[in-house]
User: Fold these one by one.
Assistant:
Number 1:
Amino acid sequence: MIELQAIERRYRSDEVETTALAGIDLAIAEGEFVAIMGPSGCGKSTLLNTLGTIDRPTSGQYLFGGRDLAQLPESDLAQFRAASLGFVFQSFNLIDELTIEENVALGLAYRKDVSDRKARVAAAMDRIGIAHRARHFPHQLSGGQQQRAAIARAIVGDPKLILADEPTGNLDTANGEQVMNILTTLNDSGSTIVMVTHSPSHADMAKRRIDMLDGRIVASAMRAL
Amino acid sequence: MNGFALLSLYRSLTRHRVYAALNVGGLAIGIATIIVLGLYVRFETGFERWLPGHDKVYLVQTNVRAPDQPFSGRHHWTMGGLLEQLREDFPGIVGTRIEPVSASVMENGVAASEKLKRVDPSFFDIFALPMVAGTGRGALADPANLLVSRSIAERYFGTAEAVGQSMTVSIEGETRLLRIAGVFEDLPPSSELDFTMLSRLPDDVDSPWWRNWGSTSVQTFLRFAGPEDAARFESGTDAFVDKRALSAYGEQASKQIGINLLPIADMHLTPQGREPDSRRQTVTTLGIVGALTLLIAIVNYVNLATARAALRAREVAMRKVMGADRGALIRQFLGEAIGTAALAGLVGLALVELALPFVNAAGGLTLTLTYFGAQGVILPLALLALVIGVVAGAYPAFMLSRFPAASVLASAKAPGGGQAGTRLRQALVAAQFALAIAFMIGTGVLFAQVQHLRSADIGFDREGLLLIRSMSWAEDEAQRRAIVARMAAIPSVRSVALSDSVPGGSGTNNVDTFKKDGSPPLSMRRVAIGPEFFETYGARLLAGRFLGDEFASDDVTDREFEEPRNVVINTLLLRALGYKDPAEAIGQQVGRGAPPRTIVGVVNDMRFLSPREPIDPTYYTYYRDPRYGPLTLRFTGDPKATTDAAREAWISVAGELPFEAQTGVESLREQYAEDERAARLFAIGAGLAVLIGMVGLWGLASFNTARRVREIGIRKALGATRGDIVRLLVRQFLQPVVLANLIAWPLAWAAMRRWLAGFDDPIALSPLYFLGAGLLAALIAGLTVLGQSLRAARATPAWALRHD
């Protein structure tokens, strides 16, 4: 489904040039659950953002379902994200001024082809077990509940790919486990997931683990089933 | 504030330069506006306050108590002999009269007209004018003495030390050699007294008008020890009038006419007769505009300052961790805020100095800025900076310093006032845009009305008229005829006409009151005209005929007032008499019984007087050879060429008299000069209010956009396009603007309707002014936030999400 070829990403500030991704080749098939690991600054998040098209590679090819995304104009990318991707962030990134229900509905806000929004939002919240908090504001919820709301938002549009950037990083162990269970269940029911994590045990719950160092992929292993 | 806090202020100003410039600049403009308009208000309300003991001096008003007459209301003038009668009936009363007379100084055979007024010898008991040389008090006991102003002395003698010098002065056509007994300081601009020379008022004025109740030929001033004495005097005036005006007004004369006192300091802003209270309204309005502009600026400043301060919660927490106590933090924030406000005050002062020449030019004013002393601006400005600083600094000083440091540092986000803060800021934006929109509507209506006054149909063609007012001073019939003949011979002159009434007024106002059977008495103006008057003005004949020599019975030169006359009336009188069709009135009488006035023609209404006053029902009587009144020329081509030719013609026949002429357009312009000036000052105030509103909106939008960077990132990650983001942000700021329109429209409608009611011929209050101002405000707001929204929408979402 996804094919990255020789992806490079360099950041240029006034005097310093930093290389975040130094030639990434990666293929991800439909239905995979990939965990990306590595020390801070190795390029994990940049890779995830590149996959999510919220960061553009400096060079290289990004094929998604055969389409070269690296060449698409910004407006087409926005449509692509709305239709095909779901994001889960470490810091949840819920909008403070909106209720949980409204935050989840935001996952459909930029889709023009969707009908029955209310039902889909309700279904997504049900599925993640956050429906009883629909009318609450983010600050009224625990971290685990906020992250579940964020996941509901990510899946409400039935994305082809879910990108999770340290989804358990801000959670305690129990809540972290719960979130991981949700992700695994989603994967079991067919969602493709790419997750960045620092936790080896959570990485072990994925089907495939990729290790990164200094902008390169240094190891890639399938979980023994 | 210690050195470190100063550094912190400097950093906060220089690190966010644009923000600091806008914030300080906006407040500075607001401060400059209130200073300039405050100077204007102080000037307008400070008339005669320069006069030593002004609070004891009162003007005597003539109060025409009969309603709905051309002269109803209180006037600043009295009959000439009033003071003498007051002295007889109120022994010990202290007063003086001031009589304006036509006067010119002869130098080398050429006459130059000067502002000479004749006064009683007691003048200096009431008006203690500061003297430059000689003495004022007592000098006027001698009718051969003259007092002149410093500038007159310097102009004619090259020095203010002109005591003992002589001048040849022609007063009301009588030329005499007068000796300068003293030189007084020039009157300040804030004075209505308006003279440069003073001479003795004769004791024995031999004119029936001088003691005619209801006539108005002098200003009478009285001096009282205090307000109680003035009130006691005023309460006795009705009995005085009943006794003295008995022969003119019959029993209970005070029901029809009275005298009142007006403190001299109120004279400038108090309207006369039926004049609307427009001058005071203008002063009040501009004062309010200034105050509101400053209010907008302060609201903006506080809004922005507190919004930014919320972003500094982390800094506050860190300072606490480093050991700062609450007191130190409060001192730091208040110090910063007061320092910034003081800086804005200084910039505001600089702006005032830069702007005053332009404001003076636009408003025809002579405002100056005083820094120190009782009238100085420094002390109030320092107080203002202190208040603004405390208000702006209070939120960060007391709120932020109370947040527990640990939770602020641990939290991922800054405590930014949350929803309540956002609502409040939106409401403040709406409020200031409401004011700005109301100001814009006001400016539009003001200018449209002034433009309307300039171009409205006033019943005659205002272009191509030259009014020679000095014609009133011609010495005899022979000279008058010679002047008329010379003027008529100027090639560009089409016709000439004498009349006792001209556009802009002539000083002559005659009103007759006729009784009709069974209906209330009807008052109307009487205008005396000479040959070709209607032709010269281009009046439209609606029925009958004009007056002229070809009808022997038209001429009233040798007729008594009670004898029959042929008259032409205007349509207002036609309607007041109850006729619908002009033709019906021909051959009818104005009123019934004596004196007989037969209507031979009906003309359209011509507006000679202020557009703020109603046109009066008028009738015209004909003199083949009028003995007084200005001369009107109808000419073609360049006004200046005709004016020059007329001056030459004048000098060749009447060189000993000064030549005074102005075009019809110039004369009419004086009537709405004040409205024009008010419109311009209002527009300046309104423009600045809008500018400050824009600055505030820009600052707030940038703050809000910055705060929403993360949200924008999320939305983009979820697939929002740039267009979606721009729409989102712009809509957020258009909402308060829409709300602002809803607040502004009724306010502006009520205010402008009231202002327009002061005109006899107002424009319609079209919805276009409201829609136009609303759209303009929306456009301004949209453009103001569009730039930032575009930038925010362009940022890559990955960057935005890291930004916290």
Number 2:
Amino acid sequence: MPDKPESFLIADCGSVNTKVGLVDLVGGEYRFVGVGVTPTTTESPNADVLVGVRRVAEQLQARVNRRLLTEDGRLITPELPTGQGVDAFAAATSAPLPIRVAIVGLSRAVSLASATRAINSTYATVEATLALDETGSRWLGATVVTRDGEDLRPGDGDAEGSDQKRTEPLADPAALAAEKLAQANPEVIVLVGGIDGGATTALYELANLVAVISAGRDTSARPVVVFAGNRQARPEIAARVGQVAPLRVVDNVHPALDRENPRPLQHELEALYEERKIGNLPGVKGLAEWTQAPVLPAARAFENVVRFLSRRHNLNVVGVDIGGSATTLVNAQGEAFRRVVRADLGTGFGLESLVAQAGVDRLVSWLPFETSPEEALAYYLNHAVHPASIPATREEARLMQAAVREAIALTARSSGIEVKGAELILLSGAALSRNTSWGSVALMALDALQPQGILTLAVDALNLAPSFGALASISAAAAAGVLERDGFTTLGTVIAPISNNREGQIDLRVQVQPTGSGAMSLEVEHGSLEVIPLAPGQRASLEVETVGSALLPSAPKGVYKAEVEGGTIGVIIDARGRPIALPSDADKCRTKVQEWLWDIGG
Amino acid sequence: MGYWGLMSDSPLPVLPVTCVQSLTRIRRKRTLASPGQVTASVGSYVDPLNVVARANSSTHLMAVPVARYLHVPESKLSDHLLKKPGEAVYSREIIASKPELFGTLQRIYRAPSAGYIAAVQGSWVAIGLADSARELKALYRGSVVDVTPGLGVTIESVGSLAQGVWGAGGEAFGVLKKMVDAPDVVLTEDKVDVSVHGSVLLLGAGLTEQALERIAKDQAAGLVAGSLSAHLQARIAEFRIPTVITDGFGELPMAAPVFELLASHVGEEISVNATMGTRRGTDRPEVFIPAVTSSASAAGIVAAPVPETCVGATVRILCAPHANEIGKIEALPNLPQNLESGISAWGAEIELAGGRRRFRSWENLELVG
């Protein structure tokens, strides 16, 4: 790669589709030149992710009239004086299956909760949990006593007195929990528990359990054990577990009663994902030969984008990337950031799990037309077996939009991320970038995240955000340039008050004065959704006066003034209140959802 | 944006393929979930029920806090264990005991099921329960053409193949029994009797819940259906009936070519591979009917070529409207078209039965061949 690369091929190999984009210096500025998409090739007969990348590169070659690959399919790099090829290549992926993790620990509410939060930061699913405080704690309770080879019956008396409770071993909660853990056959067992310097006896017992389950498996099939508990227990844990299973030790996920420390465990799990999952993705070695930078997990690449934009504009940014198998939510403000990955919620392969968690009735409540839960479920299951298909009818589009809402809402709810302070919300993923209208996209985001205050809504219309994040790992300047100019399409400015006013009462008086044209004023009733058109790039002076109990978080009470920029929708005033309430009556609910779609141009 | 977009000189997209072949040659890898011993060798001829490999460890592991049950410290557990790691145990066999009350009583722990002592650590004993999952059957009748030491074999076979879109319940082998007269018929309970026992049942547009319960009760070996009511998906898993769905969920008829192909093999033995990973996995669920043919005539049968996207290719529409209808690519418009949903997409003009012509996006098509 040249010292100062000027042209780049960037790829995002998702679980469903592979997107490849071309970035080049145009007039001294890094610009996006072209993009192509094809289904990810991890299936027979082309179980090689590089096959899909080559296919899109061939599409791009034809589209931009620039040779990118040699006759035998290798990337031409660095760029030739004739303009063929590119200087560098960068890639991100979410194509591998998530890591299957089990958590074993002392307390469900403390150490397991902290570990779960750490696990939810990468592509991992929790297959089993065992909390000692839920299993009778002392692992006692089952005794079978015999005399002359015959089992005693209750009341026969036993070795320790007739009042002792007799329990069959299989009914023992400890044995049941242990069996579930063994049956889950996890790839990684996270062992947590105890504050640093605290008691260790119970932890050692758990370590024995983890060790015996690991040792019971074939050597090549044993799980990796990550110990993130009481620091003082490390030598003994190593002695008990380290001899039978690969053991990795990281700092305590909950080192003190009042302190959580998830980052080291997060890093270790992400390293395992890169090593065991991305590293074993069919064809990834060929892909890695095209680049000097590692192939990044797409969630981390997307995080790079959100953090960059937060630092660059000094904003509280929330980014959502919804994929076929996973949904990522990132919040960044200055140097602080947080990332949540729900590897079980998506709009492709992840639909089955999404429907199970959201409930089909909840999904149906977002539809403006009548359909039975059975029909809706059939649609979702069919889409899950053909995840690359796109909504062909209006009804299918609404069904998919309902799924997107719930995937984002479930991720946000489980994340602990405060969306209400967001100043910029970024939306990424094929289900958002490729939709029926920008109004539908905006409404999905408002319904799912329910932001409050005044903020900007933008969408990754190219569906390349993770690729831009990967590009940052080889050229920060190129990534910054292309993100600034081409990365996101602004949908508009959202004004979302919170209010205790009754439906029909005035929440806000809004005046928008676009540069070079007449002012527009309106009174916004509580419960309504209004749009004031303001074209992309057009600026306007905004005055918002709150009325009654309405208020705009982070804005001073009274009249709020600001300069805003337009977007594909304009200024969106969401006075539906928080939380947004759907009518319980099905007919009224459909009518309300349809009204909102009409109001926003969805 | 040109999603799957094409200029006139761009290569055509590579569409997913569903194989429906009346006579083809296939190769299938049969691999253990964890390492073990391969019992078949290259060149050997295997029947579907032959064991070709056996895993070293059980997939069903049970961990038991035996030291706690015996009321002994973990350091003393080995003194009371009657079995060592690796030793076999039979169901209800005493594997640990400790004398109590001066030897007049014994505190014991019995194996909950047949298996072997997988490991001992601290106060815990892991018991690998005997389960059939340790044994990998051939499933396909044919010749072993490759062996992956410790993991499995590749079997080559000749016969009829139909791939599905969804599967659950594992694998099955049995005689194919037709339960409905047409691909759009839903099977009802009154058509099910004890004769389904051990058979693989050919259905059309799915079945009622009562029919499924009756089939489970009468222990059919497996199901092949065009579709399945969405709410029955969980019940298939509950009953563990190997089931391959060829078209989708809802009340969809089985595609006519698939129904006709399978119906022509009623009474013959059929292999059902309904395993499916968390995602599609590298292999689709499928059914395969080995050909009854001499080795000489089989030698001339070659693997079906992978169909390509081109005018004249046979395709299936994946979603509404006209979901699962099969037609032929008639033309390749050189501009994207607006779908009813409002999405703009590139695709092809498809001619359906009766001469109807419809535009469908590439994303919503698959090749059939």
